[in-house]
Specification:
Number of strands: 4
Strand content: under 5%
Radius of gyration: 26 Å
Strand order of the largest sheet: 1-2-4-3
Shape: elongated
Largest sheet: 4 strands, mixed
Helix content: 55-70%
Structural class: mainly alpha
């Protein structure tokens, strides 16, 4: 019995040591003020503009209203920031195929569908939503409005009184430095939410590592040189991805990593929407970035939706070698036994463009048999008959 008791005493002493207590206090969440109301003219103006935008967004056709997906995303937000903070947010998932989210002064938050496609697990989604909630809790939109208004006043006086070009440049530069400072503050507050949640703090840095890799892949696909920098440019509104990954990784190590990322649960929740999100991604005409993203999604194996999307990607680029690859991807998808009818259409079109007329027409006939009411049935019938 003595050894377990001694071990327990050691653990208790370490857990309550001054250094550990100071570290915990440094990363503790700030008190939260519920039912906050704007207190001055600047805040009331910011809230009014946000209310107008929310009324427009509420009925916008590009908002995803799927109850299951919305409940899932909101559940991740609540598990990340806590139920009291979560109650202040009205969350809208918008079908925009880019990696982004936004927060407004009145508690409206948007999450773009392109982010859902790029995130790998609940922990990363929590990190992104926590960052956005950090902007809301720190009242950044109002602070930004005040900062820019005072800066614009200074620019106006400089032009009247002859303040000179140097003053104007310094003032404009101050706008962007202020933005970057806000982003870092929201990053670190979001990390504190993760530390208090069931999710691992390492997820925040993992996001930016892949964002950098996708950016590089997009540049290479467009025959440009990748450019990952540590220092943000003069007019940059955000810290660089490399900077963010570095300070978030260091802070996570200081806090300690715990929890489960819930990757399987994330994939299951996203599965019904994955084919549509992949269609949106392919339409971006970003071969390098899309190929990188598909490879990341296929880390555990190439599923039917991923193979079909890859076939579409290669067929759209359309080099002769791409058409051969596309036909192979379509055939692999069909071989899984659960391919959509559009896989036969893609196969037929790739074969026709590759001068394989009869196999291409046979695949198009299969498409029409599986989807006789297809909107492009007249065009496909014409191709078969030609």
């Amino acid at each position: 019995m003595r050894r377990p008791i001694a071990a327990a005493l050691v653990v208790a002493i370490f857990a309550t040591s001054p250094a550990r207590a100071a570290s915990d206090a440094a990363w503790a969440l700030p008190p939260y003020v519920a039912a906050y109301q704007p207190s001055d003219i600047d805040e009331r103006g910011a809230w009014m503009l946000a209310d107008d935008e929310e009324r427009r967004l509420r009925d916008a056709p590009d908002v995803i209203r799927d109850p299951a997906l919305n409940a899932f995303v909101r559940g991740v937000l609540c598990r990340t920031v806590g139920a009291d903070r979560c109650d202040a947010i009205r969350l809208y998932i918008v079908r925009i195929p880019a990696f982004n989210a936004t927060t407004y002064a009145n508690g409206m938050m948007t999450l773009w569908s392109g982010a859902l496609l790029r995130l790998r697990n609940e922990a990363e989604l929590g990190a992104m939503l926590g960052h956005e909630f950090g902007h809301f809790e720190l009242r950044h939109s109002v602070a930004d409005f005040r900062h820019r208004r005072s800066g614009n006043d200074l620019l106006a006086w400089a032009s009247i009184l002859g303040g000179g070009f140097a003053l104007q440049v310094a003032t404009v530069g101050g706008f962007y430095r202020f933005d970057r400072a806000q982003e870092k503050a929201a990053d670190l507050l979001g990390l504190r939410y993760l530390a208090a949640s069931p999710y691992p703090t390492s997820a925040a840095a993992d996001i930016w590592v892949r964002v950098m890799a996708e950016t590089d892949a997009s540049a290479i696909g467009r025959y440009r040189k990748p450019d990952q920098r540590y220092t943000a440019g003069f007019f940059a509104t955000h810290p660089t991805e490399l900077t963010r990954a570095t300070y978030l990784r260091a802070a996570a190590a200081q806090i300690g990593v715990h929890g489960a990322d819930e990757a399987a649960r994330y994939r299951a929740a996203l599965a019904p929407w994955l084919p549509r999100l992949l269609v949106d991604q392919i339409k971006l005409n970003d071969f390098g970035g899309s190929e990188y993203l598909l490879a990341q999604l296929a880390a555990d194996g190439w599923t039917t939706p991923l193979l079909f999307a890859r076939g579409e990607l290669y067929r759209e680029r359309g080099h002769p070698r791409d058409l051969v690859s596309a036909a192979g991807f379509y055939r692999d998808a069909i071989g899984h036994g659960d391919a959509p009818p559009e896989a036969y259409r893609g196969l037929g079109l790739a074969l026709l463009r590759g001068n394989q007329a009869e196999p291409g027409k046979a695949a198009l006939r299969d498409y029409l048999r599986r989807k006789p009411d297809a909107g492009d049935a007249p065009l496909i019938s014409t191709l078969i008959a030609s």
